[in-house]
Design brief:
With 444 residues, the chain is an alpha+beta fold. The protein has helices spanning 90-93, 109-128, 141-151, 162-165, 208-211, 256-265, 282-295, 315-318, 353-370, 372-381, 420-429; strands at 19-20, 27-28, 34-36, 43-45, 49-53, 55-56, 78-79, 95-103, 130-134, 160-161, 176-181, 184-189, 192-198, 213-219, 245-250, 308-312, 335-343, 346-351, 385-389, 398-399, 406-408. It contains eleven helices and 21 strands. A seven-stranded mixed sheet has the order 9-13-14-8-15-16-19, sandwiched between helices. Strands 6-3-7 form a three-stranded antiparallel sheet, with no helix packed on it. It has a three-stranded antiparallel sheet with strand order 10-21-20. A hairpin with a 6-residue loop joins strand 20 and strand 21 (406-408).
Length: 444
């Protein structure tokens, strides 16, 4: 009888044929990837400045497959051959999924993003057997700080101004990287990178290698979408032309017509979050559309073949406007246990697609009556548009009597539907990851 020999697991890694840099969006072959020097003597990169380690194309490797720098030190970090910025190894193995979040200043983009990613870390594993983790903790440092400020605050019971929990996104600073190409200096937005991967218990876990994605999220200052701000030296919004899904954050409380409807629908003053600035938001959407058309080389009459999700934020302040149209629990999350199976502590759920699309239809009707130009611009641009309500912090905001600022106790943060735009986008346009309930035929 032949002896049984224990085989070592196959550790070979399948690389993509083409890698996309999440900073400058250059595509390159894996063998062109640069490495970042480790030795302290090898400082001074021609594109990134004298304080940055040198980037190089290796000729020597360790037994484990890591490159050796000019001083013989093993290296572990990769970089883009064009902009020299760091590229996580996951992007060499998994397809990227670019997603752009944009909107007017103070529309709540950063709060929505932080609340969404924190909730996704909890819900994807528990309800959908999918892991959602940082691809690069260094690049995600600010996102993690946002999440901690909202959900792991060291003073959870203290009334804190919202502006102190997450600072306003600026047009320059730590969320951007500067690269010098000869005499031209270019500023790129720093993406947030997270790995989306099916786990044991997922119905398609055997296809994990093919279905896994590196989600690249971008958060720009609202001022970056003003006309004239997109220039060669600051192409900070050009990621939108590469995005698989566009999230336009619309703040109803910044529109006077919406605020008037809110006031007429309730007795007493409107909620505290609705007492802020007033501004037109259609120009932001129109400017974003113009840039996408320009950089995606689309004609003026062509409709974009990638979806646009319009997220109406601060739902806690205007949810009463939908009360006459809602005949169900308006505070429940839109997913239900699937009829499939359970694995360990994971009970597979399915997205309640009919309910999400009912909400979308109601919101479209509300916007048509209040801000019709938003609907016209969105649907004149994209083939598929969906409207989703969300509240990043929930129903417990109040005006601080001393400072007059809109505040909340972090322990009272209760997000509403912040993950739904992401989950719906993944279900509809990245099949195989998030199952969904089908629309039932109406019975006679």
């Amino acid at each position: 009888m032949a002896s049984v020999v224990d085989k070592k697991p196959d550790r070979r890694t399948t690389l993509l044929k083409r890698v996309t840099c999440p900073h400058c969006w250059e595509q390159f072959s894996p063998e062109a990837t640069l490495w970042v020097s480790e030795h302290s003597n090898l400082l001074g990169d021609p594109l990134l400045g004298p304080e940055e380690p040198q980037r190089f194309l290796p000729t020597r490797f360790t037994v484990e497959g890591d490159a050796r720098d000019a001083e013989g030190f093993p290296c572990h970090t990769l970089a883009c051959p064009r902009c020299h910025l760091v590229v996580p190894r996951a992007l060499l193995e998994m397809e990227p999924l670019f997603m752009s979040i944009f909107g007017a200043p103070a529309s709540g983009k950063s709060f929505l993003l932080a609340s969404m990613t924190w909730q996704l870390r909890q819900q994807l594993g528990r309800n959908f057997a999918i892991s959602f983790s940082d691809a690069d903790p260094v690049l995600n440092r600010h996102l993690n700080e946002y999440e901690e400020s909202l959900f792991l605050n060291p003073q959870p019971g203290e009334l804190t101004p919202l502006a102190s929990l997450i600072r306003k996104t600026e047009e320059q600073g730590e969320l951007y990287d500067t690269v010098t190409f000869g005499t031209q200096t270019v500023t790129y937005p720093r993406p947030f990178l997270l790995v989306l991967r099916p786990e044991n218990g997922h119905p398609n876990s055997e296809k994990a290698e093919r279905l896994s994605r590196v989600v690249c999220l971008y958060d720009n200052a609202g001022e970056s979408f003003q006309p004239g701000r997109d220039v060669v030296g600051s192409p900070v919004t050009r990621h939108m032309a590469h995005s698989r899904t566009l999230f336009f954050v619309f703040d109803p409380t910044q529109d006077n017509r919406f605020r008037e409807r809110m006031t007429n629908s309730v007795s007493g003053p409107i909620p505290s979050q609705a007492a802020g600035r007033v501004s037109r938001q259609e120009p932001v959407l129109q400017e974003a559309i113009a840039r996408i058309r320009r950089y995606a080389r689309m004609s003026q009459t062509e409709k974009h073949n990638r979806p646009l999700v319009v997220i109406l934020t601060k739902y806690d302040t205007w949810s009463h406007l939908l009360s006459s149209m809602i005949d169900e629990d308006s505070y429940g999350e839109p997913w239900l246990p699937a009829a499939a199976s359970t694995a360990g502590d994971v009970c597979m759920h399915a997205l309640d697609v009919p309910r999400i699309e009912r909400y979308s239809a109601m919101l479209r009707t509300l916007l048509q009556r209040t801000c019709p130009e938003i609907v016209s611009a969105a649907e004149g641009f994209a083939r598929e548009v969906v409207y989703i309500p969300a509240s990043a912090v929930g129903w417990s905001t109040q005006t601080d009597s001393e400072s007059g600022l809109v505040s909340i106790r972090p322990t009272d943060t209760r997000p509403f539907w912040v993950t739904v735009p992401f989950l719906y986008a993944i279900h509809r346009w990245t099949p195989g990851l998030i199952p969904g309930l089908k629309r039932k035929e109406s019975s006679r």
